[in-house]
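S.,

Sequence below, as promised.
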Amino acid sequence: MQPSSSEFSVDLSSSNAWLRVKELEEQQHSLLKSVICGFNQLLDLRDLNTGIHSTRLAEWAIRVARRLGIPESDLYQIEVAALLHDIGKIGIPDAILKKEGKLTDEERALMNKHPEYSWSILRMFSGLEKASLYALHHHESYNGAGYPGGLRGAEIPIGSRIVSVIDAYDAMISNRCYRKGLSHEEAVKRLMDGGGTQFDPNVVQTFIEIAKQEVADVFAATGASPSAVI
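The prediction came back faster than expected:
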């Protein structure tokens, strides 16, 4: 029996509605990607080292996560967190952010607010809830001595534990206006020394295996030398 004209109209209407929903979802996803790229560009404009640094971290984060067996469905959140974990630094005055000398207690307290600022920005976007939490906790320590929540071990989201390790490594090897970057060997040593206290030792070992394969390329990107003076 052939479907009636009314049944055909209902089916067509449902199909059109489904296509419209998919179209809106794609538009929303495209907009979110544009916002993320825009934020990363903002980091570049705010601090040239930070933007490039974040792009490197996003690439490393995906590779570490895959080696750790994290589901593909979670990789996007980790990638965004690695890319924009420092977006909250736009709320830190240049006098503190680019200070060459040691920070005062008051300045350090304000600097330590940047993960919370990052969280407050990213949480405003639907679909980035996990990424915002990863950014919030990327300065937690494996032994519970970090901030802002004093979380320890597995209490710290895995995305945060990944960002913590690769963020520390990249910061150590990169040249700054107030110091030269460390050598690859010294940076790796410090990561290993911090395994179990500051860092998740499993993440440390996984990342070191990746870093060893890319030492030359990484240091070329940072403008430093793999054998930089310690």
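The chain has one domain: 9-222.

Coffee later?
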